[in-house]
Write a structure and sequence with these properties.
Pfam families: GATase_3. The structure is a single chain. The protein is α/β, with parallel strands linked by helices and 267 residues long. It has a single domain (12-264), classed as Class I glutamine amidotransferase (GATase) domain (Rossmann fold, 3-Layer(aba) Sandwich), CATH 3.40.50. 33% of the residues lie in helices and 28% in strands. It contains eight helices and 13 strands. The protein has helices spanning 12-15, 39-51, 81-93, 95-103, 113-117, 213-216, 218-233, 242-264, and strands at 22-28, 55-61, 73-76, 108-111, 121-123, 129-131, 138-155, 159-173, 181-183, 196-197, 199-201, 204-207, 209-210. A hairpin with a 3-residue loop joins strand 7 (138-155) and strand 8 (159-173). Helix 2 crosses helix 7 (218-233). The longest helix is centred in the C-terminal third of the chain and has 23 residues, at 242-264.
Protein backbone atom coordinates (compact mmCIF):
# COMPACT_ATOMS: atom_id res chain seq x y z
CA UNK A 1 0.00 0.00 0.00
CA UNK A 2 1.38 3.43 -0.91
CA UNK A 3 2.75 5.75 1.76
CA UNK A 4 1.39 9.28 2.07
CA UNK A 5 2.08 12.24 4.32
CA UNK A 6 -0.49 13.43 6.83
CA UNK A 7 -2.18 15.67 4.25
CA UNK A 8 -2.92 12.64 2.08
CA UNK A 9 -0.46 13.72 -0.63
CA UNK A 10 2.12 11.39 -2.11
CA UNK A 11 5.52 11.45 -0.43
CA UNK A 12 8.64 12.40 -2.39
CA UNK A 13 9.99 8.83 -2.29
CA UNK A 14 6.73 7.48 -3.68
CA UNK A 15 6.56 10.01 -6.52
CA UNK A 16 10.07 9.14 -7.67
CA UNK A 17 8.72 5.79 -8.77
CA UNK A 18 10.14 2.36 -8.11
CA UNK A 19 8.59 -1.06 -7.76
CA UNK A 20 5.30 -1.22 -9.60
CA UNK A 21 5.73 2.21 -11.27
CA UNK A 22 7.96 1.42 -14.29
CA UNK A 23 6.89 2.07 -17.89
CA UNK A 24 9.11 0.60 -20.63
CA UNK A 25 9.29 2.71 -23.80
CA UNK A 26 10.65 1.39 -27.10
CA UNK A 27 12.05 4.16 -29.32
CA UNK A 28 12.45 2.86 -32.86
CA UNK A 29 15.44 3.67 -35.09
CA UNK A 30 16.72 6.91 -33.52
CA UNK A 31 19.77 6.90 -35.85
CA UNK A 32 17.83 6.88 -39.13
CA UNK A 33 14.25 7.89 -38.27
CA UNK A 34 14.54 10.95 -36.08
CA UNK A 35 14.27 14.23 -38.00
CA UNK A 36 12.37 17.50 -37.65
CA UNK A 37 12.28 17.33 -33.86
CA UNK A 38 10.64 13.92 -33.42
CA UNK A 39 12.96 13.13 -30.49
CA UNK A 40 10.97 15.76 -28.59
CA UNK A 41 8.06 13.31 -28.41
CA UNK A 42 10.20 10.96 -26.33
CA UNK A 43 11.35 13.82 -24.10
CA UNK A 44 7.74 14.86 -23.53
CA UNK A 45 6.63 11.34 -22.63
CA UNK A 46 9.48 10.69 -20.22
CA UNK A 47 9.05 14.03 -18.47
CA UNK A 48 5.29 13.70 -18.09
CA UNK A 49 5.64 10.12 -16.85
CA UNK A 50 8.02 11.36 -14.15
CA UNK A 51 5.62 14.15 -13.21
CA UNK A 52 2.86 11.55 -12.80
CA UNK A 53 5.09 9.52 -10.51
CA UNK A 54 6.10 6.78 -12.95
CA UNK A 55 9.59 5.60 -13.83
CA UNK A 56 10.23 5.79 -17.61
CA UNK A 57 12.67 3.17 -18.90
CA UNK A 58 13.76 3.92 -22.48
CA UNK A 59 15.04 1.27 -24.90
CA UNK A 60 16.64 2.62 -28.09
CA UNK A 61 16.28 0.14 -30.91
CA UNK A 62 18.37 0.57 -34.06
CA UNK A 63 19.09 -2.06 -36.70
CA UNK A 64 20.19 -5.32 -35.12
CA UNK A 65 19.68 -4.17 -31.53
CA UNK A 66 18.10 -6.65 -29.10
CA UNK A 67 14.37 -6.45 -28.43
CA UNK A 68 13.56 -5.45 -24.84
CA UNK A 69 11.83 -7.97 -22.61
CA UNK A 70 9.04 -5.54 -21.73
CA UNK A 71 7.36 -2.94 -23.99
CA UNK A 72 4.55 -0.69 -22.74
CA UNK A 73 4.77 2.04 -25.39
CA UNK A 74 6.34 2.42 -28.84
CA UNK A 75 7.53 5.71 -30.33
CA UNK A 76 9.13 6.36 -33.70
CA UNK A 77 9.94 9.29 -35.94
CA UNK A 78 10.38 10.24 -39.55
CA UNK A 79 13.22 9.96 -42.00
CA UNK A 80 14.11 10.57 -45.60
CA UNK A 81 13.52 7.84 -48.21
CA UNK A 82 17.11 6.67 -47.77
CA UNK A 83 16.56 6.24 -44.05
CA UNK A 84 13.48 4.15 -44.71
CA UNK A 85 15.46 1.95 -47.10
CA UNK A 86 18.11 1.43 -44.42
CA UNK A 87 15.72 0.17 -41.77
CA UNK A 88 13.03 -1.62 -43.80
CA UNK A 89 14.58 -5.11 -43.61
CA UNK A 90 15.08 -4.82 -39.85
CA UNK A 91 11.53 -3.50 -39.45
CA UNK A 92 10.17 -6.49 -41.37
CA UNK A 93 12.09 -8.80 -39.03
CA UNK A 94 10.30 -7.13 -36.11
CA UNK A 95 6.90 -6.91 -37.82
CA UNK A 96 5.29 -9.87 -36.07
CA UNK A 97 6.35 -8.58 -32.66
CA UNK A 98 5.02 -5.08 -33.38
CA UNK A 99 1.72 -6.42 -34.70
CA UNK A 100 1.40 -8.58 -31.59
CA UNK A 101 1.98 -5.55 -29.36
CA UNK A 102 -0.65 -3.59 -31.29
CA UNK A 103 -3.13 -6.45 -30.87
CA UNK A 104 -2.44 -6.42 -27.11
CA UNK A 105 -3.40 -2.75 -26.96
CA UNK A 106 0.09 -1.30 -26.49
CA UNK A 107 0.00 2.42 -27.40
CA UNK A 108 2.21 3.60 -30.24
CA UNK A 109 2.97 6.90 -31.95
CA UNK A 110 4.78 6.79 -35.29
CA UNK A 111 5.55 9.90 -37.32
CA UNK A 112 5.97 10.45 -41.06
CA UNK A 113 8.42 7.84 -42.41
CA UNK A 114 7.55 5.19 -39.84
CA UNK A 115 3.86 6.05 -40.18
CA UNK A 116 4.20 5.20 -43.87
CA UNK A 117 5.99 1.91 -43.17
CA UNK A 118 3.36 0.90 -40.61
CA UNK A 119 0.95 0.79 -43.54
CA UNK A 120 0.73 -1.76 -46.34
CA UNK A 121 3.44 -0.26 -48.53
CA UNK A 122 5.36 2.89 -49.39
CA UNK A 123 6.40 3.62 -52.96
CA UNK A 124 9.25 6.13 -53.05
CA UNK A 125 9.64 8.82 -55.72
CA UNK A 126 12.31 6.73 -57.48
CA UNK A 127 9.81 3.89 -57.90
CA UNK A 128 11.20 1.72 -55.09
CA UNK A 129 8.38 -0.09 -53.31
CA UNK A 130 8.89 -0.94 -49.64
CA UNK A 131 6.42 -3.36 -48.14
CA UNK A 132 5.08 -2.14 -44.81
CA UNK A 133 4.13 -4.13 -41.74
CA UNK A 134 0.37 -3.66 -42.18
CA UNK A 135 -0.69 -2.30 -38.81
CA UNK A 136 -2.51 0.47 -40.68
CA UNK A 137 -4.77 -0.30 -43.63
CA UNK A 138 -3.06 2.38 -45.71
CA UNK A 139 -0.59 2.90 -48.54
CA UNK A 140 1.67 5.80 -49.50
CA UNK A 141 3.02 6.98 -52.85
CA UNK A 142 5.84 9.51 -53.00
CA UNK A 143 5.41 12.69 -55.03
CA UNK A 144 7.83 15.37 -56.24
CA UNK A 145 5.94 18.17 -54.49
CA UNK A 146 6.39 18.50 -50.74
CA UNK A 147 3.60 19.40 -48.33
CA UNK A 148 5.06 21.75 -45.72
CA UNK A 149 3.59 24.03 -43.09
CA UNK A 150 1.48 24.37 -39.97
CA UNK A 151 -1.41 21.96 -39.66
CA UNK A 152 -4.63 22.21 -37.66
CA UNK A 153 -7.00 19.26 -37.47
CA UNK A 154 -10.00 18.12 -35.47
CA UNK A 155 -9.92 14.65 -33.96
CA UNK A 156 -12.93 12.73 -32.64
CA UNK A 157 -10.75 11.42 -29.82
CA UNK A 158 -8.49 14.36 -28.96
CA UNK A 159 -10.25 17.49 -30.15
CA UNK A 160 -8.06 20.08 -31.86
CA UNK A 161 -4.53 18.91 -32.74
CA UNK A 162 -1.83 21.28 -34.00
CA UNK A 163 1.49 20.42 -35.58
CA UNK A 164 3.83 20.95 -38.51
CA UNK A 165 3.87 18.73 -41.58
CA UNK A 166 6.79 18.16 -43.96
CA UNK A 167 6.33 15.24 -46.34
CA UNK A 168 6.12 14.36 -50.02
CA UNK A 169 4.35 11.01 -49.63
CA UNK A 170 0.61 10.94 -50.20
CA UNK A 171 -1.11 8.47 -47.88
CA UNK A 172 -4.50 6.91 -48.58
CA UNK A 173 -6.43 5.09 -45.86
CA UNK A 174 -8.39 1.89 -46.39
CA UNK A 175 -11.66 1.01 -44.70
CA UNK A 176 -9.89 -0.75 -41.82
CA UNK A 177 -8.20 2.41 -40.48
CA UNK A 178 -9.66 5.69 -39.22
CA UNK A 179 -7.91 9.05 -39.68
CA UNK A 180 -6.37 10.67 -36.64
CA UNK A 181 -8.25 13.83 -37.60
CA UNK A 182 -9.50 16.04 -40.41
CA UNK A 183 -7.82 19.22 -41.58
CA UNK A 184 -9.95 22.22 -40.59
CA UNK A 185 -7.84 25.34 -41.02
CA UNK A 186 -4.24 25.10 -42.17
CA UNK A 187 -2.48 22.14 -43.70
CA UNK A 188 -2.63 19.47 -46.37
CA UNK A 189 -2.92 16.26 -44.38
CA UNK A 190 -2.47 12.76 -45.71
CA UNK A 191 -2.83 13.51 -49.40
CA UNK A 192 -4.20 17.01 -49.96
CA UNK A 193 -7.47 15.68 -51.34
CA UNK A 194 -9.72 14.06 -48.72
CA UNK A 195 -8.81 16.30 -45.73
CA UNK A 196 -7.75 13.34 -43.60
CA UNK A 197 -4.57 13.44 -41.52
CA UNK A 198 -2.82 10.59 -39.84
CA UNK A 199 -4.26 7.23 -38.90
CA UNK A 200 -5.61 5.48 -35.85
CA UNK A 201 -6.26 1.79 -35.19
CA UNK A 202 -6.42 0.00 -31.83
CA UNK A 203 -4.13 2.22 -29.69
CA UNK A 204 -1.73 2.97 -32.54
CA UNK A 205 -1.45 6.52 -33.90
CA UNK A 206 0.30 7.60 -37.08
CA UNK A 207 0.74 11.21 -38.14
CA UNK A 208 2.67 13.56 -40.41
CA UNK A 209 2.99 16.10 -37.59
CA UNK A 210 6.56 16.96 -36.71
CA UNK A 211 7.72 19.82 -34.66
CA UNK A 212 7.45 17.79 -32.33
CA UNK A 213 3.75 17.10 -31.92
CA UNK A 214 3.39 16.00 -28.27
CA UNK A 215 4.61 19.16 -26.49
CA UNK A 216 1.83 21.15 -28.18
CA UNK A 217 -0.80 18.44 -27.71
CA UNK A 218 -0.69 17.10 -24.12
CA UNK A 219 -4.02 15.30 -24.58
CA UNK A 220 -2.34 12.96 -27.07
CA UNK A 221 0.69 12.50 -24.80
CA UNK A 222 -1.54 11.70 -21.83
CA UNK A 223 -3.53 9.18 -23.87
CA UNK A 224 -0.30 7.30 -24.62
CA UNK A 225 0.77 7.49 -20.97
CA UNK A 226 -2.58 6.46 -19.54
CA UNK A 227 -2.91 3.55 -21.96
CA UNK A 228 0.65 2.37 -21.26
CA UNK A 229 0.04 2.47 -17.52
CA UNK A 230 -3.21 0.55 -17.87
CA UNK A 231 -1.47 -2.03 -20.06
CA UNK A 232 1.40 -2.50 -17.61
CA UNK A 233 -0.25 -1.97 -14.21
CA UNK A 234 -3.98 -2.32 -14.81
CA UNK A 235 -4.76 1.33 -14.08
CA UNK A 236 -3.40 4.85 -14.39
CA UNK A 237 -2.84 6.33 -10.92
CA UNK A 238 -0.84 9.58 -10.87
CA UNK A 239 1.16 10.29 -7.71
CA UNK A 240 2.36 13.88 -7.55
CA UNK A 241 3.85 16.50 -5.28
CA UNK A 242 2.61 20.08 -5.39
CA UNK A 243 5.73 21.02 -7.38
CA UNK A 244 4.98 18.39 -10.01
CA UNK A 245 1.36 19.55 -10.30
CA UNK A 246 2.63 23.09 -10.78
CA UNK A 247 5.01 22.02 -13.53
CA UNK A 248 2.23 20.16 -15.35
CA UNK A 249 0.08 23.28 -15.18
CA UNK A 250 2.96 25.36 -16.53
CA UNK A 251 3.50 22.90 -19.40
CA UNK A 252 -0.20 23.10 -20.22
CA UNK A 253 0.03 26.89 -20.38
CA UNK A 254 3.07 26.74 -22.67
CA UNK A 255 1.30 24.23 -24.92
CA UNK A 256 -1.71 26.51 -25.20
CA UNK A 257 0.48 29.46 -26.16
CA UNK A 258 2.26 27.38 -28.81
CA UNK A 259 -1.06 26.17 -30.20
CA UNK A 260 -2.36 29.73 -30.55
CA UNK A 261 0.79 30.83 -32.39
CA UNK A 262 0.79 27.82 -34.74
CA UNK A 263 -2.92 28.15 -35.51
CA UNK A 264 -2.59 31.77 -36.62
CA UNK A 265 0.80 31.70 -38.34
CA UNK A 266 0.66 31.59 -42.17
CA UNK A 267 1.99 28.51 -43.90
Amino acid sequence: MSQQDQSGKATADEVRGGAGRAIDILFLYPKDMNIYGDFGNLLTITRRLSLYGYEPLVHYCNQGDPWPGQVDMVLGGGGQDEGQKKIIDDLQDRAEGLRSLADQGVPMLVICGLYQLFGRYFQATDGTRMEGIGIFDAYTVGQDERMIGNLVEESDQFGSIIGYENHSGQTHLGTGTQPLGRVVHEGTGNNGKDLTEGARTQNVIGSYMHGSVLPKNPAVADFLIRTAAEHRHGSFSPLQTDAQRAELAHLAELAQQARKIAATRPR
